[in-house]
Amino acid sequence: MKKHILVVPGDGIGAEVTTVGKQVLEAIARKFGHEFTYDEALIGHVAIEATGSPLPGETLTKMRAADAILFGAVGHPKYDNDPTAKVRPEQGLLQMRKELGLYANLRPIKLFDELLDASSIKPEILRGADILFFRELTGDVYFGKRERLDEGNTAYDTMIYSKYEVERIVRKAFEAARTRNKRLCSVDKANVLESSRLWREVVQAIAPEYADVEVEHQFIDAAAMLLIKDPKRFDVVVTGNLFGDILTDEASQIAGSMGMLASASVGDNTGVYEPIHGSAHDITGKGVANPLASVLSVALMLDISFGLKAEAEAVVGAVDAVLKAGYRTRDIAGPTTQPEHVLGTDAMGQQILQLLQA
Ligand code: NAD
Ligand code: IPM
Ligand code: MN
């Protein structure tokens, strides 16, 4: 199979982890006889520095021409600590999502058994947890009108959803639930927010079409609690952009670390495959970032954008085997990890590559 992949490393550890992700793609192409070609483009802080824009036109053109995009992360402490900055790295990410129509962000929370002791949650609560989040990605308070009033002393953001926007993500979630354990939890704040009442109405209206799927509604505050109390009660979860952002960072603790969570952003055009984590300034340049979220994002790309199931399974299998062999990056090392098994980003990548070359 011939595919053209755009690598967009972005900022901070984004560059460190996508290097490993790309090596995994190259290894898969060799092993299975595919022809993958690559290009690279700028986004975020590095793009602002080079061009003045967080999403240069050239990057967008390359994105539209690619069969899939391997994305790293954006963000820089300079902007995090300067609320007055008008141009920000994150604008590049949000504009990319809007321009490419990436309205569905799939965030699978899968716990590798070997990582039971890497989480701060008790193993008996965690064992068997397997959740698929559908986070709406191009609407909500992220894209609603925002403004400063009163000479800058008052500010507002608008949480806004249209029926159409809710319908398309909810249908995707129902379809996925059908292929899994047929349970769908919709998360909102319908006891307070009008946009959430519309959300709930839409879910209720669609539910009869999927009578084989058991639907429940939870408020965001209760859902945040239940996720930690009893993660196994969830199968597929569908929610809005902001609630989904927060709940999935929380859910990363079910999988052991932010460094383990991959995601697929899909919609009308080219799919973007990216870890859920950010540019992690605190560990940038130290060579300790966990590359497995990027590696698992490659598996999602192979499966979802290219339909290459065996190839995707080979990647996930390699991650599983490396963890079974006891290798860990620092973030997922547990009390039983032998010190010589704690690897940096590149060494962890090499372990995965060796298995894929075998
Ligand atoms: P973060 O996800 O970058 O880091 C949170 C914590 O998790 C940090 O302690 C970090 O060291 C750890 N961590 C994250 N990824 C890791 C990995 N692969 N291996 C080991 N440890 C890992 O979130 P933050 O600190 O809130 O934000 C830092 C910057 O990243 C900000 O500028 C923010 O806007 C940006 N951000 C970008 C994205 C994205 O590009 N998709 C996502 C989240 C945050
Ligand atoms: C994510 C990030 C982004 C978001 C930020 C950096 C804009 O946290 O991809 O989860 O909030 O969507
Ligand atoms: Mn986030």
From TrEMBL:
Record keywords, A-Z: Amino-acid biosynthesis, Branched-chain amino acid biosynthesis, Cytoplasm, Leucine biosynthesis, Magnesium, Manganese, Metal-binding, NAD, Oxidoreductase
Site (Important for catalysis): residue numbering on this chain: 142, 189
Pathway: Amino-acid biosynthesis; L-leucine biosynthesis; L-leucine from 3-methyl-2-oxobutanoate: step 3/4
HAMAP family from the UniProt entry: LeuB_type1
The protein's Enzyme Commission number: 1.1.1.85
Subunit-structure text: Homodimer.
Residues forming coiled coils: none
Role noted for this protein: Catalyzes the oxidation of 3-carboxy-2-hydroxy-4-methylpentanoate (3-isopropylmalate) to 3-carboxy-4-methyl-2-oxopentanoate. The product decarboxylates to 4-methyl-2 oxopentanoate.
SUPFAM superfamilies: Isocitrate/Isopropylmalate dehydrogenase-like (SSF53659)
GO CC term (a single one): cytosol
Catalytic activity: (2R,3S)-3-isopropylmalate + NAD(+) = 4-methyl-2-oxopentanoate + CO2 + NADH
Organism listed in the record: Spirosoma sordidisoli
Record family assignment: Belongs to the isocitrate and isopropylmalate dehydrogenases family. LeuB type 1 subfamily.
Pfam families: Iso_dh (PF00180)
Compartment(s): Cytoplasm
Protein origin, superkingdom: Bacteria
Binding of Mg(2+), residues: 221, 245, 249
Gene Ontology MF: a single term: 3-isopropylmalate dehydrogenase activity
InterPro entries the UniProt entry points to: IsoCit/isopropylmalate_DH_CS, IsoPropMal-DH-like_dom, Isopropylmalate_DH
Cofactor-binding details, from the entry: Binds 1 Mg(2+) or Mn(2+) ion per subunit.
The name this protein goes by in its record: 3-isopropylmalate dehydrogenase
Domain Isopropylmalate dehydrogenase-like positions: 4-352
